[in-house]
Amino acid sequence: MQQPILGYWEIRGYAEPLRMLLAHFGVAFEDKQYILGPAPDFDRSDWLNVKETLGFDFPNLPYFIDENIKLTETLAIYEYICAKYNPSYLGNTIVEKAYVAMITGVLRDFNSAIGRACYSQDAATLIPLALESQKPVLARFVKYIEGKTFLVGDHPTYVDFYFYESLDRLDAIDPSYLAGISPLFEAYKSHIRSLTHVEEFVSRPNRLHFQGPAAGWRG
């Protein structure tokens, strides 16, 4: 049986939580990474040259190929991987599934705000402003995760992996930022690292940059 393929740029970006999730599930997969060229052109031809040849209905990165199944769009890939390997990671009840979707949406908006600052060429100025502007969101997360091991229910779901990567980027930007808000974030990250294969995954040497070469801060 052919290994599934996860395709994305040679960065962490949207794909890193998916990589972590697959590693946690013990899935052997091909981690196909497309090169982004250096400044000033940031050449994308490594991907563009094959984009229309792989048989996707809506070609994009990240993508996931599992035999004859060819998916794009991050959320669809999360849902497919979980449905195939451990459906409880989608949520066990209607309410849990709704909360997974809700928190995913909150994190998408949160990460977009941080990401815009990181990709700015004035990142040194804009990142501190973005971090300050997002403190109210993190304050809500502090209140929400208090007394919890995982974000939804008493078991991990895919949004935990998304949240972990979001927190990890913040720690890379400013190691004192989250600690200055609440110790609960590091406690939460510790819980996630204790899951099967996760510590091994996050401790790998030579990890990829968070952002591409066009970013003012790559991480």
Automatic annotation (TrEMBL):
<dbReference type="GO" id="GO:0006749">
    <property type="term" value="P:glutathione metabolic process"/>
</dbReference>
<dbReference type="InterPro" id="IPR004046">
    <property type="entry name" value="GST_C"/>
</dbReference>
<protein>
    <recommendedName>
        <fullName>glutathione transferase</fullName>
        <ecNumber>2.5.1.18</ecNumber>
    </recommendedName>
</protein>
<keyword id="KW-0808">Transferase</keyword>
<dbReference type="InterPro" id="IPR036249">
    <property type="entry name" value="Thioredoxin-like_sf"/>
</dbReference>
<dbReference type="GO" id="GO:0004364">
    <property type="term" value="F:glutathione transferase activity"/>
</dbReference>
<dbReference type="InterPro" id="IPR010987">
    <property type="entry name" value="Glutathione-S-Trfase_C-like"/>
</dbReference>
<dbReference type="Pfam" id="PF14497">
    <property type="entry name" value="GST_C_3"/>
</dbReference>
<feature type="domain" description="GST N-terminal">
    <location>
        <begin position="2"/>
        <end position="89"/>
    </location>
</feature>
<dbReference type="InterPro" id="IPR040079">
    <property type="entry name" value="Glutathione_S-Trfase"/>
</dbReference>
<dbReference type="InterPro" id="IPR036282">
    <property type="entry name" value="Glutathione-S-Trfase_C_sf"/>
</dbReference>
<dbReference type="InterPro" id="IPR050213">
    <property type="entry name" value="GST_superfamily"/>
</dbReference>
<comment type="function">
    <text>Conjugation of reduced glutathione to a wide number of exogenous and endogenous hydrophobic electrophiles.</text>
</comment>
<dbReference type="InterPro" id="IPR004045">
    <property type="entry name" value="Glutathione_S-Trfase_N"/>
</dbReference>
<dbReference type="Pfam" id="PF02798">
    <property type="entry name" value="GST_N"/>
</dbReference>
<feature type="domain" description="GST C-terminal">
    <location>
        <begin position="93"/>
        <end position="214"/>
    </location>
</feature>
<comment type="similarity">
    <text>Belongs to the GST superfamily. Mu family.</text>
</comment>
